[in-house]
Automatic annotation (TrEMBL):
<dbReference type="GO" id="GO:0051287">
    <property type="term" value="F:NAD binding"/>
</dbReference>
<dbReference type="Pfam" id="PF01118">
    <property type="entry name" value="Semialdhyde_dh"/>
</dbReference>
<protein>
    <recommendedName>
        <fullName>Semialdehyde dehydrogenase NAD-binding domain-containing protein</fullName>
    </recommendedName>
</protein>
<dbReference type="InterPro" id="IPR036291">
    <property type="entry name" value="NAD(P)-bd_dom_sf"/>
</dbReference>
<dbReference type="InterPro" id="IPR000534">
    <property type="entry name" value="Semialdehyde_DH_NAD-bd"/>
</dbReference>
<dbReference type="GO" id="GO:0016620">
    <property type="term" value="F:oxidoreductase activity, acting on the aldehyde or oxo group of donors, NAD or NADP as acceptor"/>
</dbReference>
<feature type="domain" description="Semialdehyde dehydrogenase NAD-binding">
    <location>
        <begin position="8"/>
        <end position="84"/>
    </location>
</feature>
């Protein structure tokens, strides 16, 4: 396989990070095609020549055939307890669907790239971070060809839904961004920065497993 015919599969494509990633995959010469798994088609994806939409109401119905033939599988799938509606529903999205997706990729020549979160830890007292950590621990037990995990801090971007605290934090950061130029561990990153490093990892990572922390997301060009 040459460096110019990579094929991407993306779940979580309709979210903040996912849309930025799909846009950059469309522009990336190394990728010849991008398949996004969606619950309903998005008009904004129809203008992308490389992108095809696979409509599936329940992502737990993804099967082995659905994920076969791809060089890279990206998961930008994630929610919040508030948006999901309960801890149980949040767990079903962030853990169960991602774990199922990874299960299907075992023993394939596919590079899995997953957006997690800064603070992910299976021992955390915070439910959100604990679920993220439990998922990461599980993925490490699988026979995956290659795995990348990304730990962004607060993400800067235009959300479809309003998140009061994140919105306030974004406004404060945007006001101060010109004075905060150096990389900082907790400095917010844009969704474009995160999508950018995901594609760089897809093209250059040699290690079987690597975590990209928030500093790496800020400084990778």
């Amino acid at each position: 396989m040459t460096n110019m015919n990579k094929k991407a599969l993306v779940i979580g494509a309709t979210g903040l990070v996912g849309k930025a990633l799909v846009k950059q995959l469309q522009a990336a010469s190394e990728f010849e095609s991008v398949t996004v798994v969606v619950r309903k088609e998005l008009d904004e994806f129809k203008v992308f020549s490389k992108v095809s939409q696979f409509v599936l109401e329940d992502f737990l119905l993804l099967n082995d055939q659905d994920v076969s033939g791809y060089t890279h599988a990206f998961s930008c799938l994630g929610s919040t307890i508030k948006k999901a509606g309960s801890k149980q529903k949040f767990y079903a999205i962030d853990y169960e669907i991602n774990a199922h997706f990874a299960d299907l990729l075992q023993d394939k020549e596919t590079h899995l790239l997953l957006v997690s979160a800064m603070g992910a830890n299976s021992s955390s007292i915070f439910f959100y971070n604990r679920v993220k950590g439990l998922l990461e621990d599980y993925l490490k037990t699988l026979t995956l060809n290659k795995l990348s995990i990304f730990h962004p801090s607060l993400l800067i971007g235009e959300r479809d839904e309003q998140r009061l605290l994140e919105g306030a934090a974004q406004k404060i950061f945007l006001l101060l961004k010109d004075t905060i130029k150096k990389p900082l561990m907790y400095k917010p990153v844009t969704v474009e920065q995160l999508a950018h490093i995901m594609i760089i990892a897809a093209n250059t990572q040699m290690e079987c497993f690597k975590i990209y922390d928030n500093l790496a997301i800020q400084t990778t060009s």
